[in-house]
Amino acid sequence: MAQAPTAHGKGLSSQAQNLHWLLTNLVDEVPGIRSVAVVSSDGLLLLSSDPDRAAAKAQPDGGDGPRGSSADLATIVSGLGSLTHGAAKLMDGGAVKQTVITMDEGSVFVMSISDGSLLGVHAAPDCDMNVIAYHMALFVGRAGHVLTPELRSELRKSMESAL
Fold this sequence. Notes:
The chain has 5 helices and 5 strands; from the N terminus they run αββααβββαα. By secondary structure, the chain is α+β, with helices and mostly antiparallel strands. The longest helix has 21 residues.
């Protein structure tokens, strides 16, 4: 089960604290979620369900790094967002709203947020996909209108300070 996110420093704005609270609720209330990441349109991790593991650095000797964490999820979400955006453009399909990848050992969900940011969830194989998609849509609906450039900058700085 994913760890609930923690604030990355004191003095966060009320909007940043509210987004952390929304992410905490998503993780705590939806069974089967392993990791959650909110990624900016330029691929930077803004929010994480496991900030301690996201801040971990891969060791050059092949030791334990953040494998499977929201740091990995952020990379995957960013790549999938770019790939699906390109595919939609080539196919004249309009905006991509959601991407789901199901695997033997889990699923990855990616949902667009109105500002170009993306919400990514890594879930257990036995998760209820409808419940996860529903709660992701609630998060996107609540978070989308507050992710201003100023707030994205604050969240980036917060994540960087966790390193």
